[in-house]
Amino acid sequence: MLRFCAKSIPPWSMQLPIPSTRFDSMPRTLTLVYHRILPTQAKDRFALSSNVFTQHLRQLTRFEQATGISTRITFDDGCQGFADTAWPLLKACRREAMQFILPGLVGQAATWIENNPFPLLNWGTLKVLVDDGLRIGSHLMGHTHMKRLSLKALRYEADRSRTILQAQLGIEVQEVAVPYGYCSPDQAHALLDVGYNRVHLVYGPWFNPADYPEEVIPRMEMRGDRRFEHCLNLNQFATLDIGP
Ligand SMILES: [Zn+2]
Question: Given Cys at both, which of 67, 96, 169, 212 links 216, Cβ 3.0 to 4.6 Å?
């Protein structure tokens, strides 16, 4: 069996092919993004079964203990099933989480996914979850691809999304995650200009941290069709064992 050895962990720059000075040493926090946790596994690369998610939570704890790197769990879209599947599992292991919500589609459906417009959390359930400790960020309004938004339209949507979330839920919203995980450096600056203090993307080979403001977070995408190590881009750890 392969064993985890913190001393064998190479600098972060060796794990991710990022031409960056920001990741020249290991980050203290790694942010993950999940989408849907379902009671059973589905043929959906953005969905994990409850069992696999439970396994991830165990593996994350072992990873943190072995490396000293903390992990932050986020979810995009506000899938209705979150309240019954992921949230109880997160609470059971005292994990915090943030959901990025689309106020233009709350209580409706994921209309941007043609073959699977799954239902989205409504305001009542969101309020209950917020009172129970769930943190909320903005996913803008209606899941429009960033390539279709001018800077002016983006500023309007970003401001409107935050205003509605804050008014409906009685909270302060300071973080935003862009739909589809990608935005340009100019768009990231625009989101910070309207008052967000963190802009979440999804990490990919296209992402060059040197091009983006420091407040941009490249999240690791946790998918149902990939092993945990692969999602975290940790498969280069020769001695990795985060167990089942
Ligand atoms: Zn999304």
Answer: 212
**How many whole angstroms from 214 Cα to the centroid of ligand 1?**
22
Give the range of the structural domain holding residue 47, as residue numbers without chain letter: 29-231
Distance 165 CA to ligand 1 centre (A): 16
Tens digit of pLDDT for each residue in 132-164?
999 999 999 999 999 999 999 999 999 999 999
Does any domain span residue 195?
yes
Q: Are 201 and 182 in contact (CB under 8 A)?
A: yes
Question: Residue 51 domain-assigned?
Answer: yes
DSSP strand E in the chain: where?
29-34, 36-38, 47-49, 70-76, 97-101, 135-138, 175-177, 198-202, 216-221
Distance from residue 4's CA to the centre of ligand 1 (Å): 33
* Structural domain total, the chain: 1
State the number of CA atoms in the 13 A half-sphere of 100 facing the CB: 30
Distance 9 CA to ligand 1 centre (A): 32
Q: Place 234 in a pLDDT band, splitting at 50, 70 and 90.
A: low
CA of 54 to the centre of ligand 1 (A): 22
Ligand 1 centroid–CA 239 distance in Å is 34
Q: State in Å: Cα 94 to ligand 1 middle.
A: 25
pLDDT digits over 20-64, tens only? 333 345 568 899 999 999 998 878 889 999 999 999 999 999 988
Q: Tell me, yes or no, whether 6 lies in a domain.
A: no
